[in-house]
Please model this.
Amino acid sequence: MTHRFPERGAGREDVLGELESARVNDVRWKDGRAFSLVFYPGEEIYSLVRDAFLLYFSENALNPSAFPSLRKFETETAAMLCDLMRGGPTAAGNMTSGGTESILLAVYAAREWARKHKPDVTEPEILLPITAHPAFDKAAHYFGLTIKRIPLREDYRADASALPGLISRRTILIAGSAPQYPQGVVDPIAEMSEIARKNDILFHTDACVGGMTLPFVRMSGRPVPDFDFSLPGVTSISVDIHKYGYAAKGASVILYRDRKLRREQYFVEAGWTGGIYGSPGILGTRIGGSIAAAWAVIRFLGTEGYLQLTKSVMDTVDRIRKEVQSIPGLAVLSNPDGPVISLISQAGSNLDIYQTGDELQMRGWHLDKQQNPDSLHLTVSHAHVQSADDFLRDLRECAKIASGWNRHRLGAVTQEAVVGFLARVLPPSWIRSLSKLTGGTGGGRSAAMYGMIGSLPPGDDLRDIVLDFMDRLYEPPKK
Ligand SMILES: *Cc1c(COP(=O)(O)O)cnc(C)c1O
Model:
């Protein structure tokens, strides 16, 4: 036991001081150094969001009858998002704590719907593009559903032509993404949702990352494929407000074409000794601050404000894409539809993209590593309008350093897959502990793992290794 429950309290200044000093090694997101995790809209909008959050810091949306204020903010926010997603008069939704909860609820509602309307289906299946967010896998895992994978086309969009061959009487839900996270391309939602509709199957559009940027990308005059309720086959949509809505964390919506489907998402326990308990989503107590801040930032910015933010973000994306073309060995993967892009090493070049990511990391940039293919992920948002020049200068230098570096030291392809996966999922601090665990010398750079990790087994054992790591991760740091 490394941390005892404190005997005595500490002073206010000490506590706040410890909080402040603990963040020294955190990524500097306000400086546009994080290409995921935080969406910083600049000080004016940020301070509005923070003030709104703090005003409703203590309020609890568990029981909206005690807080008509939160009920107003939640219902109005869901309604405004239904409008942005071009829903009709029957469209309705709820706020949730994030994209994962929204997706869990969409899948759960589909399962409950199928229990009523397709009672002979005892082993329900959902069809997901290979690139769909793992929140769907989590949902299938939690709710006992089987997943069938929709293959991708060459451009990394889901291959809609494969759907008819995958659909069976067990299929209860098909999903597509707008855009999918890894490469930032929008799946052919029009085609996919139409096939779903013709087969009497529900269709979910995952617009978690795109829902609050693609409509404004389109308004700015750039082509964006349809993905919302304007397509008759789309029956539910998830949109995160805590991403490109620039709200405080803990804010997403799950929207349904028809409120009858939303009903399937609700939970009621009518016989509890504590009273009748009804809850719209997965959480019990719900943070009032997130709901109020989401409503506030939409009120504050409106279409005009989001359009302006989106234009400057897309101009920055253009700058990055253009500059990448002139960096030897580097390329943007596929043709992204919005501000989410990924970088690969060009076919035939000897640039190592993971090594490029490590070099960037050492200069204080945070980019996620991806697999199949090896790539770096950039969620370009407003913070990068300012930091793009510095980033591109460092990217050029890091790509140069990472050229000529190759992994010939590594033998088997399976090992490469294992290492690639770990390098992607594990932050550098874990990799340091991993290198200790495997007897290596470490050094904190994930590309350096390749030399030391050859002893790791592939396959199912990999999952166990990651589980062991998670077990360690959620232990407190040594004092
Ligand atoms: C972020 C994201 C999610 C999950 O959202 P969380 O808020 O992290 O739970 C789901 N789908 C896509 C496409 C995303 O980008």
Notes: The longest strand covers residues 171-177. Residues 98-100, 103, 133, 135, 177, 181, 206, 208-209, 240, 252 surround pyridoxal-5'-phosphate (CB under 6 Å). DSSP finds 15 helices and 13 strands in the chain. The longest helix spans residues 288-325.
